[in-house]
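Working notes for the structural subgroup meeting. M.R. asked for a predicted model of this chain before we commit to crystallization trials. I am recording the input and output together here so anyone reviewing the notebook later can reproduce the run.

Input as submitted:
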Amino acid sequence: MKNNHIPVMLEEVQSYIPHDKKINVIDATFGGGGYSRAILKKFDVKQLVAIDRDPISKIFARDLNEKYNNFSLVNGCFGNIDQLIVNNSQIKKIKFDVIIFDLGLSSNQLDNRDRGFSFKYDGPL
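Returned structure, recorded in token form:
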């Protein structure tokens, strides 16, 4: 599956991230991984934890898992972020510097008629 989603607020979000220290980051709405990928490339990241409830997000996380040992994906809803972090023994003691929530729609979902989100194509609801 190809990732067609481009995060539209990437530059604005990055402008608030500190450049002068190692950071721990939560990408609470991983989706296609655009924010996570850009942050891992540009910043000194100690740990980046991505959260997404969509099982498809695992496909988009594969290359980041292979390339970065400081990246992990947690499958779950960002509404349960406190429990997702506390119940994960590997990350529950981390103090996070940045938490990103991109609450828009993903073009990966909109462009795929089989997902039931599309406005352009008929598909299941």
